[in-house]
Design goal:
Length: 487
Amino acid sequence: MIGSIRVCRLGRLCLSVMSGLLLGLCWVPAAPALADEPMELRESLSAGTCTQVRIELKAEGLFRPGLSSGALAADATMPKPLALDVQTRLVFTERLLGSGAAPGGAGGRRQSESGSAARPASRGKAVRWVTQAAAAINGEVRPTASVLRPGLSLLVAERAAAAVVVVSPAGPMTRSELELVQGLGDPLTLADFLPREPVAKGRTWKLPESAVVALTGYDAVKSSTMEATLEQLDEAAARVRLKGEVQGSALGGAGTITCEGFLNFDRKAGLVDRLEVNRVESRQPGPVEAGLDVKSTLTVLRRPARLAPELDDAAVANLTLDTSPQRQLLQLISPDGKYNLLHDRQWHTYWDDPKLIVLKRLDKGKVVAQCNLAAGPGAGKGRHQDLAQFRDDLRRSLKQRFVQFLGAGEVDGDPAGGFRYKVGVQGREGELGVLWDYYLIASPEGDQLLATFTLAEQDAAAFGAQDLEIIGSLQWNGPAAAAKAKP
């Protein structure tokens, strides 16, 4: 970029003091040199740089539900595909943090007031102020809409391997809120689309896995032919063509995506300012999500911006920038708003309605545990089901699968969690050893909840005490708080 600017300045100088012949000698070499010589395309953003980012996804196609768990393979037929229309939009101001994750620079200037070089930005961490985060799903499926609660508008984003992790310092997000703010086209990955070495016009390079994940959202990439080609180049910008096919999976559902589009690199600002990709995906039903046959367009717009007041030095200095697993916990709010609890991001909502919520825990795309939260009958204020009857009901319901009780007793947790009683059961499903942890939970008002954790006996050591952590975090909400908390 510096070389081309110098050529331009030299040309203007020649125009004012030299003859037409010498002027031609100054200008003629510039165009072929810019087009044919290898040029470096690299983001050069200092700590404190602020950008305005808009990420939009528009998709339409078919939603393909899988077979129910009780269907018999011999006579089962796949459910009818349903028309699907999805639109999402995420708008935020982002401030890059320095390599030490501390405030540095202001407004993205490359030098300090004294003229010394500004601290380099960390490619891995940023703070964000969200002004819009919303999604709408329509078609023949159940219409749904989701937004980010205003109190969670200030976010911290950090690179983690090929993906980006987003957390809210103000408190845990729900799964639907996380899906709004963490996903495709994250600006912390845009530099990965650029070549690692100087390239000339027409040169092609293979996209790394981080860029592939940013385009597809796959959590496991099996193969990729995604390539980038420098299509156009001038003093102001470089246009890069993107094309290829990716095979992988998302939450255990295997799929294939073909992508074709482009990105624009603003050479003067030193950043990728536009990414636009058309995607065609076919994905099989997985253990958590239905299958898809969709066409979509992903658009990312990014431009330099002034420092937002919500991201100034004072705000960042008082902000918890930690993105550790404890900070990544998600909040589950029951459909009626009567209770909420916390769980880590490996638990995914498979089903939710006022009577039953089903969570499945995935490890490398496979279900390793399940949690059912079933609403029980009211027991009256300050009361709960008789505990001996509760144990007898469990044994009768398991029938021949029951082997033995492993223990029973009250468990501690959040003071707002009411009464909690656990019964551990060892059993068998055919040749497989199974463990069930049952919880009878009652609110001070007499609302009851039956929580059931199911896992293979061989996975008990890896599972640890996750059931106690989840149930221990449960809080009951009073009528007024429940109405306010209701999703």
